[in-house]
């Protein structure tokens, strides 16, 4: 049994090769939900969606989000209408008094759907509608995710990190903004001061998460701050990780992050924006997998390989290195 | 200045010929919102939408709802997901405790979006998202409608009957159901006992509605019960109509309704399911326009013409009859 902690790009890429060492039936993936937002009344869970679409064989592998070949008729029409009506475009938070009413899941992360600043495909949207309506019917995010995972034929066990709202907010020199505004709408431009996981101290890990952390845990090459950080901020998670074998894969090649804003964000949490920073970000890690061209020095066991993942063969190579590191880390 | 009261099919068809007697700039249309529902988090206003799409020149004129040539990618995907996940299809009301929370507009008419029982097109959906988000931003339905009417380039003044929730509920031998379940999902099959406009006694006419009813009023050939009935149930509307000139166009050719379930519904409110019943339904009407093949007898002025509307020429003919009837009714 193995449990992966995943964000939306690095770890999903790694999971393409997971079968090289781990049976899908014995694999659990705990997924970040700090990126989740409600937009136009729909709960969008970008990292869960990537894993659903990957597991269902319909992921757009150019972008690592959305459904391959999906149309964007509704999203385009939203821009057209906003433009014709003279309505503003870009992210628009709902008023404070509407952030939390109705669905507690919407806490601090509710956006207007006017001009829809995220590109949501038409089939993609059906997933968000189904998820949101299942929650409105009284189910939890975990339960909704389980139904969707069934629908997409997933063989791994997919768990959201929490059924409670956690919002990854980025404090920048241009103000506080949700991670999705910072990354999708502003392309990571504003200078980051700190990152806050609002709601995390009151949120509970979702059913099954703490149990899954009793198995060997692999932290994939995801952004340590905004992909893995929200999980670590949940009550009980860091303690659970301290008590099991944890292997972390570097999301850096030297000072360069493979994807996303990991570098800038590491600095914001006072960690080195490079492989060295992993030791700070993951004090509970028992071993690391780093690139064989990386000269980072650790006081913990390290397995080196080419960690660039551009194919399932690459992913399988890194998975085998993880399997070695698990042996070293025990 | 003239004000039309409209549902979603008969009166919009009539409005195609309105320019034969009335300038669009001097025309107000007050629209039924008793059919409105919230589905999958979106406020859908079917009758308003028909008038928006008609005014914008994009209405599907085969069905008189939706946008011509629209795709239904999201709607189809919702069925596919529900089927793959083993989720139920058909209308599914949200639980009682979720009917009113969050948005007061959602009162008593909230459906799950799972398997989406109404066919909502992809561009059509963008209208619902924009409307719902404008309301979530703090605007009223009237304000949202005004923005959408601007976006679609409408020249008439389009007013929802109320900014408050009114739900047309049909009490049948198979239980109480929203009009949309009765008509869209069940094709008008269940035997109707009574019709209730839940919320109407507490709802206010939308800004501008009572003022618009000071002008000459035309009640188009819409369903007297579920299209016009919700308006008449609003405080002040019947009184306002009693004080102005009102001309009503029959939605019946003898005992046959032109469209929709008008016949069955008239019986449910103890009115004759034919032109004669109009006198009962519209006691404030000063004159009627009925078909020249109709032998209904009225104690009020009547103008007869061929009232079947299959083209804008037909509509213009009926509009000219209305103009005559206004003269007779004064």
UniProtKB/TrEMBL annotation, chains A, B:
- Keywords for the protein's UniProt record, in alphabetical order: Magnesium, Transferase
> Which pathway is this protein assigned to?
Cofactor biosynthesis; coenzyme F420 biosynthesis
- Which parts of the sequence bind 7,8-didemethyl-8-hydroxy-5-deazariboflavin? 49
Question: Entry's SUPFAM superfamilies?
Answer: CofD-like
Q: Which InterPro entries match?
A: CofD, CofD-like_dom_sf, FbiA/CofD
Which EC number applies?
2.7.8.28
GO biological process annotations for this chain's record? F420-0 metabolic process
Which reaction does this chain catalyze?
(2S)-lactyl-2-diphospho-5'-guanosine + 7,8-didemethyl-8-hydroxy-5-deazariboflavin = oxidized coenzyme F420-0 + GMP + H(+)
Pfam families, per database record: CofD
The superkingdom of the source organism is Archaea
Q: Which GO terms describe its molecular function?
A: LPPG:FO 2-phospho-L-lactate transferase activity; magnesium ion binding
Cofactor(s) required, per the database record: Mg(2+)
What sections of the protein cross the membrane?
A: none
Subunit? Homodimer.
Family of this protein: Belongs to the CofD family.
Q: What does this protein do?
A: Catalyzes the transfer of the 2-phospholactate moiety from (2S)-lactyl-2-diphospho-5'-guanosine to 7,8-didemethyl-8-hydroxy-5-deazariboflavin (FO) with the formation of oxidized coenzyme F420-0 and GMP.
Indicate what this protein is called per its UniProt record: 2-phospho-L-lactate transferase
Q: Which gene encodes it?
A: cofD
């Amino acid at each position: 049994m193995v449990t992966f902690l995943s964000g939306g790009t690095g770890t999903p890429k790694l999971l393409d090769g997971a079968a090289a060492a781990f049976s899908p039936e014995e694999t659990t993936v705990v997924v970040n939900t700090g990126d989740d937002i409600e937009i136009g009344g729909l709960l969008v869970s970008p990292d869960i969606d990537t894993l659903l679409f990957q597991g269902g064989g319909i992921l757009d592998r150019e972008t690592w989000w959305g459904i391959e070949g999906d149309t964007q008729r509704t999203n385009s029409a939203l821009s057209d209408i906003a433009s014709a009506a003279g309505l503003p475009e870009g992210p628009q938070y709902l008023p404070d008094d509407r952030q939390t009413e109705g669905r507690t899941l919407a806490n601090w992360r509710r956006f207007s759907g006017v001009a829809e600043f995220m590109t949501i495909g038409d089939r993609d949207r059906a997933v968000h509608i189904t998820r949101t309506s299942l929650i409105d019917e009284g189910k939890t995010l975990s339960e909704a995710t389980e139904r969707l995972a069934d629908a997409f034929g997933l063989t791994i066990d997919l768990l959201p990190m929490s059924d409670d709202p956690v919002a990854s907010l980025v404090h920048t020199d241009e103000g506080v903004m949700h991670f999705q505004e910072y990354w999708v709408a502003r392309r990571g431009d504003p200078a980051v001061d700190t990152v806050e996981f609002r709601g995390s101290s009151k949120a509970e890990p979702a059913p099954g998460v703490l149990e899954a952390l009793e198995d060997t845990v692999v932290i994939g090459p995801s952004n340590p701050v905004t992909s893995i950080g929200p999980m670590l901020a949940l009550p009980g998670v860091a303690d659970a990780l301290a008590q099991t074998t944890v292997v972390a894969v570097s999301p850096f090649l030297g000072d360069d992050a493979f994807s996303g804003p990991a570098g800038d964000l590491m600095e914001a949490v006072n960690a080195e924006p490079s492989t060295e920073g992993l030791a700070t970000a993951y004090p509970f890690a028992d071993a690391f997998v780093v690139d064989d061209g990386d000269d980072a020095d650790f006081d913990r066991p390290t397995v080196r390989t080419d960690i660039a993942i551009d194919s399932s063969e690459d992913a399988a190579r890194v998975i085998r290195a993880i399997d070695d590191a698990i042996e070293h880390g025990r």
